[in-house]
Amino acid sequence: MSDIGKIRIRVPSNVKAGDVVRVRCLVIHPMEIVQRDAQGKIIDRNYNYITRVTATYLGKPVVAFDLTQSVSENPAFSFALKATAPGPVKVTFVDTHGGKYEATADIAFA
Amino acid sequence: MAGAMTRRSALGTFGAVGAALATGTLSIGTPARAQAQGQSQALGLQESVQDGLKRVFGGRPMKDGAALIKLDIPPIAENGAVVPVSVEVNAPMTPASHVKSIWIVADKNRIPIIAKATLTPEAGQAFVGANVRLGETTDVRAIVEQSDGTLLTAKREVKVTVGGCGG
Amino acid sequence: MRSLPRLRWAALALLVTGCALAARESTPVASPGRTSRAIAEARGDVRVSPDGKRTAVRYAGWTTRDFGAFRSYAYDDVRPEPPVQKAVMPVGVVGDPKKGRALFLDRQKGPCSGCHLVPGDDVWPAGSVGPDLSTLADRTLPDAYLYQQLWDPRVTFPVTVMPPWGAQGVFTPEEIVHLVAYLQTLHGPPPPEKDADRNPFTRRKPTGFGDNLDPTNNPAVVRAEEAQALWSARGPKGKACADCHAGLPQTAMRGVATRYPRVVAEYGRVMSLEDFLSVHAAATTGRALPSESAANLDVTLLVKMASNGLPVAVDTTSPAARAAIERGRASFYRRVGERNHACADCHTPDHGANKFLGGRFLGDVTGGLTRHSPTWRTSQNDVWDMRKRMQWCMTPLGANMLAADAVEYAELELYLTTFDVGKPINAPGIRH
User: Fold this and answer.
1) Kind and range of the H or E element at A80?
2) pLDDT digits (tens, 9 = 90+) for C330-356
3) Which residue in chain A has the smallest CA separation from B123?
4) Is residue A2 part of a domain?
5) Can you give the residue range of the structural domain that contains A53?
6) pTM of the complete model
């Protein structure tokens, strides 16, 4: 499972102060779905999926996603932010197995 | 060439800074599990969409938000495992008046309430997107809660095809 | 990514379990005269258990049904196409249109609706490869004629994409009587269409999956980036790819992929990049890169992406290449499997290409199908090369798959690649 938690963040280039920009991120994660036994009964175990994604910009929260197993494997998320100053966008993913994955990307002004 | 390296330079620093605990070290009933599963259960359960909406929103009225909500989702999903959905709300994003939350709901999914996004005015625009799973052809709804408590909703049908020659 | 658990729907998990059990209790059947450097589940092996039950060894989640009774793409499979069969409608069976309609839509059989449109809001997703049958009964065709069409249409139409359903045993005589009874109820005019997407002739074409080179869109790009380290990692012989191919793969391998598949004189056969790596890496670095292993696909991606933007330039003129392309072309038109289909049935513009097979929009061979391979498959959440795609196609055809590195597939892939010549490589792709 060495690939779990690999993150890519895409921020636009040529940003000007005051622009509302769109950020997109992807995390490698199995987002395990519920399995059933031969009788159709749900197999009870701790399925590993991401429950929460948070994004901050310049240290301030922008968006938080609460998620379920209805979200795709290797999920991608998009959100907007108002670019007020150059600085980092940080995205954090938390899963049901205690995994916490973070990555940052910098908003740079043209 | 728009290959890996070129792209990579346009990306931010990446990679996990936190490491996941190895699978298997968490046994059933540990606080980590209870907390994590409990958190997700607050959002989405295996339930009918009616039960889910009642559980989350009680009987609060919902206004037709079709004019304000742009729900972007392919009308035909060749593949229910990865369906890109995005929601954009034509509404102010100021501390005084903003979109507080956006729920994405798929009526026929076993877990119909898929995701909830909580926004702050820093976003500048009420826009979120995610890749979701759809088990079958279904209505997908966006439910928007504004800072004054108003609920708006919009929906679109997505036809999901299946595998094999018939799919 | 490939080490992640392959979690699919519960039914698939059951199939996997069944497969694993069968594998323990049975012995493999060697394919005479063939050697494969593919991973075990990609070799096309069939196992026979002590009670004589034959089980195909395939990828996790794939059917393990043995299609050995039907023709395959193997060059040494010299069985002829199934003979054309005339059939007479059985007497004493009363056709039930309701049963016939259920059979028409039965996904375990055709489904007939995969190619033919019929009325009904529950008909989804119907395809457009075959004629719209919504008003077939108005043609007042005799029952016996329709029965023969379903049993084996080659009696009337020697070149048809429709399988000989009865002759190949997919439908029983009684079932075909029910189907005929249903078809004879399809009088016009068809009910007004509530939804233009129900009708494959007016349905919107599927849109793509966005920018295939954007790592926040295509997980295969992330995977390739993470695989960079493989290039300079030393194998058991103490050598790395980078020791002979100096620099990063982006520069050292620029242009190499444009020439594959090609005839490799050293090995006396046509090889794709994947095939070549499976022997070349072992010979030089000592690291095995078996076909369809994650490492093989990773290095293939690195090398292929190093040619992104460059036009495909495979050899189509040398005598050896021309002979191989001719054999590949023959495979493309060869009818195989339970359904007696050829690749051409679905992928040439005069047949199924650019039409809907069920909800799937069929690819067109003339547009080139290989320059974006290996491709991220959103339906599989994994990277597939052309070979796994070909092996996957064998299942609906009802033919046993060959080994991923079989020369038959290599020459078929070379034939397909001739349609990509001059077009820019753009890998990894992203597809359904």
Assistant:
1) strand A76-82
2) 999 999 999 999 999 999 999 999 999
3) A81
4) no
5) 7-33+40-107
6) 0.87
